[in-house]
């Protein structure tokens, strides 16, 4: 990917999250101007201190989004996560419609969207929200890249406390010796920033995972190494998932269950498979070490 030499302006949504933050810091480090697209002035304070412009916008408001993207050489799009979508995904459809209208009107030079492994899957699941985004935004007239990232290594943040306290971590990814595609948010943000600074035409898909695939048992062994205590992984019986997720407050657990089935059964996979994906450099041990240090 050939980078532009001159300083440019990039609008970054999702900047207060892990991936968006990495994107913004990488662009700032490369000497570019960054416009932080945030919901409130308060959320923009930390980024103003780092030298960013701040633009206020709601992700379902085309007018404020258009103003945020106007005059930008590129835009990074990150959909707000919705783990409990209503049937038919109306929430993401409203956001994507607003984004499509705003981007078409503002016409930034290029767009990089954070998508997901399995965005092409025909079976409906929680990740279908990203497929909806891809199918809409790929029609835009400017170059659009979809960065399809694997399962986030940082999802193990939920496992740090039980690993420390009990030495037992529960896994919905099964079987426990199956290698799953995972990636660190640091790699996702770095690659997204590189894409924003690159040239291409039309629609582009980049599928990204970590240096090697990870089994749930690998996660337990790595926790053991990082924490200096024995940690083992236990599979959560699938028959218990629906009741468990409902008890956690999910009104409709089906999309989440379908997503987990997709990973476990292998139909949530990269279009190019493991051989066709770009490999990141950040290993699982680095991520788990960082997560443990925060506790």
Largest sheet: 8 strands, parallel
Molecular shape: globular
Helical content stands at 40-55%
Q: What assembly state would you assign to the polypeptide chains in this entry?
A: single chain
Level-1 CATH class name of the domain at 9-153 and 183-210 and 269-281? Alpha Beta
- State the end-to-end distance: 38 Å
Q: What does the average pLDDT come to?
A: 96
Number of extended strands: 12
**Spans of at least 5 consecutive residues with low confidence:** none
CATH topology of the domain at 9-153 and 183-210 and 269-281: Rossmann fold
For CATH, the homologous superfamily of the domain at 9-153 and 183-210 and 269-281 is named as: NAD(P)-binding Rossmann-like Domain
Instruction: Tell me the strand percentage band.
Output: 15-25%
Describe, in short, the structure shown.
Helix 1 (18-29) crosses helix 7 (185-196), helix 3 (62-69) packs across helix 4 (90-106) and helix 4 runs parallel beside helix 5 (128-137). The strands form three sheets. An eight-stranded parallel sheet has the order 3-2-1-4-5-6-10-12, sandwiched between helices. Strands 7-9 form a two-stranded parallel sheet. By secondary structure, the chain is an alpha/beta fold.
Record keyword descriptors for this entry.
single chain, about 300 residues, alpha/beta, eight-stranded parallel β-sheet
